[in-house]
Design brief:
Distance between the termini: 41 Å
Structural class: mainly beta
Number of strands: 11
Radius of gyration: 14 Å
Order of helices and strands: EEEEEEEEEEE
Strand content: over 45%
Largest sheet: 7 strands, mixed
Length: 121
Protein backbone atom coordinates (compact mmCIF):
# COMPACT_ATOMS: atom_id res chain seq x y z
CA UNK A 1 0.00 0.00 0.00
CA UNK A 2 1.25 3.46 -0.91
CA UNK A 3 0.09 6.59 0.83
CA UNK A 4 0.71 10.27 0.12
CA UNK A 5 0.06 12.73 2.93
CA UNK A 6 0.05 16.48 2.33
CA UNK A 7 0.48 19.19 4.91
CA UNK A 8 1.18 22.89 5.14
CA UNK A 9 -1.97 24.44 3.74
CA UNK A 10 -3.81 27.25 5.47
CA UNK A 11 -5.01 30.82 5.33
CA UNK A 12 -2.57 33.56 4.36
CA UNK A 13 -2.81 37.17 3.26
CA UNK A 14 -1.94 38.19 -0.26
CA UNK A 15 1.81 38.56 -0.61
CA UNK A 16 2.47 35.93 2.02
CA UNK A 17 4.10 32.52 1.79
CA UNK A 18 3.27 28.91 2.49
CA UNK A 19 5.23 25.70 2.15
CA UNK A 20 3.38 22.52 1.26
CA UNK A 21 4.80 19.08 1.94
CA UNK A 22 3.88 15.69 0.51
CA UNK A 23 5.27 12.61 2.23
CA UNK A 24 5.10 9.23 0.52
CA UNK A 25 5.09 6.03 2.53
CA UNK A 26 4.42 2.34 2.10
CA UNK A 27 5.65 -0.21 -0.42
CA UNK A 28 7.79 2.05 -2.60
CA UNK A 29 10.56 0.75 -4.83
CA UNK A 30 11.09 3.97 -6.72
CA UNK A 31 9.44 7.34 -7.32
CA UNK A 32 9.37 8.93 -10.74
CA UNK A 33 7.89 12.29 -11.58
CA UNK A 34 6.30 14.18 -8.68
CA UNK A 35 3.72 16.89 -9.27
CA UNK A 36 1.54 19.42 -7.56
CA UNK A 37 -1.95 20.10 -8.88
CA UNK A 38 -4.64 22.46 -7.67
CA UNK A 39 -8.37 22.74 -8.05
CA UNK A 40 -10.31 25.91 -7.36
CA UNK A 41 -14.08 25.84 -6.79
CA UNK A 42 -15.93 25.34 -10.05
CA UNK A 43 -12.74 24.77 -12.01
CA UNK A 44 -10.88 21.79 -13.35
CA UNK A 45 -7.84 20.41 -11.60
CA UNK A 46 -4.70 21.93 -13.13
CA UNK A 47 -1.02 21.14 -13.04
CA UNK A 48 1.01 23.64 -11.02
CA UNK A 49 4.53 22.21 -11.03
CA UNK A 50 6.44 18.99 -11.63
CA UNK A 51 9.86 17.62 -10.83
CA UNK A 52 11.30 14.55 -12.52
CA UNK A 53 13.45 11.90 -10.89
CA UNK A 54 16.40 13.62 -12.53
CA UNK A 55 15.52 16.94 -10.96
CA UNK A 56 14.12 18.77 -13.98
CA UNK A 57 11.28 21.12 -13.09
CA UNK A 58 8.36 22.63 -14.95
CA UNK A 59 5.89 25.26 -13.80
CA UNK A 60 2.57 26.65 -14.86
CA UNK A 61 3.14 30.13 -16.29
CA UNK A 62 1.05 31.81 -13.58
CA UNK A 63 3.33 30.57 -10.78
CA UNK A 64 6.74 30.94 -12.43
CA UNK A 65 9.07 32.98 -10.28
CA UNK A 66 6.80 32.61 -7.23
CA UNK A 67 6.58 28.86 -6.57
CA UNK A 68 9.43 26.38 -6.21
CA UNK A 69 9.06 22.61 -6.27
CA UNK A 70 11.70 20.47 -4.60
CA UNK A 71 12.17 17.00 -3.19
CA UNK A 72 14.09 15.12 -0.53
CA UNK A 73 14.69 11.63 -1.86
CA UNK A 74 15.91 10.31 1.48
CA UNK A 75 12.62 11.26 3.09
CA UNK A 76 10.39 10.44 0.09
CA UNK A 77 9.01 13.92 0.50
CA UNK A 78 8.43 16.75 -1.91
CA UNK A 79 7.69 20.38 -1.25
CA UNK A 80 6.06 23.37 -2.87
CA UNK A 81 7.35 26.71 -1.61
CA UNK A 82 4.79 29.34 -2.50
CA UNK A 83 5.79 32.99 -2.25
CA UNK A 84 4.02 36.21 -3.22
CA UNK A 85 0.69 34.43 -2.98
CA UNK A 86 -2.32 35.91 -4.74
CA UNK A 87 -6.05 35.42 -4.12
CA UNK A 88 -6.23 33.52 -7.41
CA UNK A 89 -3.91 30.89 -5.92
CA UNK A 90 -6.74 29.86 -3.61
CA UNK A 91 -7.50 26.19 -4.21
CA UNK A 92 -7.16 22.69 -2.88
CA UNK A 93 -3.63 21.54 -3.66
CA UNK A 94 -2.95 17.89 -4.43
CA UNK A 95 0.31 16.04 -4.81
CA UNK A 96 0.75 13.24 -7.28
CA UNK A 97 3.63 10.80 -7.56
CA UNK A 98 4.36 8.17 -10.16
CA UNK A 99 5.52 5.18 -8.14
CA UNK A 100 6.66 1.66 -8.79
CA UNK A 101 6.28 -0.78 -5.91
CA UNK A 102 8.77 -3.41 -7.08
CA UNK A 103 11.16 -4.05 -9.93
CA UNK A 104 8.55 -6.19 -11.70
CA UNK A 105 5.60 -3.83 -11.14
CA UNK A 106 4.35 -1.13 -13.44
CA UNK A 107 4.45 2.59 -12.72
CA UNK A 108 1.24 3.91 -11.19
CA UNK A 109 -0.13 7.31 -10.22
CA UNK A 110 -0.85 7.99 -6.56
CA UNK A 111 -2.61 11.07 -5.20
CA UNK A 112 -2.69 12.78 -1.85
CA UNK A 113 -5.92 13.79 -0.13
CA UNK A 114 -5.48 17.49 -0.80
CA UNK A 115 -4.75 20.50 1.38
CA UNK A 116 -6.64 23.79 1.30
CA UNK A 117 -4.78 26.99 0.52
CA UNK A 118 -6.74 30.21 0.96
CA UNK A 119 -5.25 33.59 0.09
CA UNK A 120 -7.15 36.62 1.32
CA UNK A 121 -6.95 40.00 -0.38
Amino acid sequence: QVRLVESGGGLVQAGGSLRLSCAASGSIFSIGTRSWYRQAPGKQRELVASITSGGSTTYQDSVKGRFTISRDNAKNTMYLQMNSLKPEDTAVYYCKCVIIKSSWSRWEDYWGQGTQVTVSS
